[in-house]
Fold this sequence. Notes:
mainly beta
Amino acid sequence: MDFNSINFEGKSYILGNEYSDLNFSSKGVEKNEIGSCTAFLDFDNGISYTFNKQKLVEILIKNENKSIYTSKKIRNGMNTKDIYKSYEGYKIKKMKSEGAGDSQDDYTYIVTDNFQKNNILFFDVVHGEIQGMHAGKRGFDLSDCE
């Protein structure tokens, strides 16, 4: 996974590309329609894909998936020092997470690069350990689906 894509099971999914053959029909994959968006939740692999009008806008790697690495070799379970070391030279912003169930030591690290295609990389960190990662189109919000 990087700012622009994820390679999974032999197929590359690129943010911003249109996919007319959305076929995630395997066992353990749930499909949700949210307005103009379609989300596929692959529970077995801890991955979700969000498409807005068939364009891939977000990829989420959940905590239980420790097998997918970013292009800089970061994966779930690693610590914040690894983020800073691997993304040296990139803009890294640390924000306090304030959602329901978030602890006092729950942060989101946002990595951006002016040379990328307007995409953004997020790391969800609890007690200094990466608990989730996602890449998405800069500025995309689920409210864009309505």
